[in-house]
Design brief:
Bound molecules: fe (ii) ion
Low-confidence stretches: 1-10
Shape: globular
CATH superfamily: Metallo-dependent phosphatases
CATH topology: Purple Acid Phosphatase, chain A, domain 2
Strand order of the largest sheet: 1-14-2-4-6-7
Order of helices and strands: HHHHEEHEEHEEHEEEHEHEEEE
Distance between the termini: 32 Å
Strand content: 15-25%
CATH architecture: 4-Layer Sandwich
Length: 309
Amino acid sequence: MNNLNKKPIRSRRYLFEGEGSNPSLKFKATYLRCLAWRIPHLILKLFLKGIGLFEQGYKNALNVKLRNREIKVARLPIELEGLRVLFMSDLHFEENPELTDVLVDTISQTKVDLCLFGGDFQRDRRKFLDPAIQGMKRIVDAVEAPLGFYAVLGNHDTIELVPELERIGVRVLMNESIKLESKSSPFYVVGVDDPFYFKFDDIEKAFENVPENSFKIFLSHTPDLYESAKGKGVNFYLCGHTHHGQIHFPFIGPLLLHSLSPKEMGMGEWLYENMAGFTGPGVGTSGVPVRFRCPPEITLMELKSGQNE
Ligand SMILES: [Fe+2]
């Protein structure tokens, strides 16, 4: 079922990034745009330190909890009733070195049917991959998921991560699908490459082997593809990236979600026509390693047949 030893697929991402040591001009330009965000992040960090709130925000960011959610999904086959899915996104392992121990303690010996990752394992694309690979290996060892571990890449991840993740048993869906089966009922997990900074998503290619009437879980780094996913008959859309803003102000909520989708799709459970969706708040942080009124979350979902059609 899982071909963990295959070479990474030469997606548009591969062509765009080049062979790692020789990235294209377009990649360099996009990377510079990402670097520009460091200035407001530094200002915010200095401001929080100046007013004495940084330490509290850092502590809040480490307070990772496993949250159980019952997700109502339309057209759920009866055999998949109660399917248990563990979901994590935006781990950004390098940002907070203490996070891995906390999250491994939190999920240790968790038993689910399958485990999905919404991308952004890395934080700084320039750095080596070790924190992400070591962290992911510990997660894979800690969780029992007989249907497997599947991931998509986010805008902070590099192509070099793909073979490393697959080596430890995490299949990366690069505009691809995988057919799974539970209690003799087949279903598909379909994943696209990063649709945000690098726009490597190719939804047509991702769905090319997926039968129209099958049950489909769609994995994307961001919620931005909700319309095209609906057009492909997706039943459940899973994503992250927004971190729910990391800082929620009273009466205002988050200032920025870095998403083109409507705000309600950038935070938590949502519904688009009869397609259920969930945008996780993320496990880690990026920019400034703090959270206020916006806790990190590892999500344990149980799929239930819904009335949403
Ligand atoms: Fe992201």
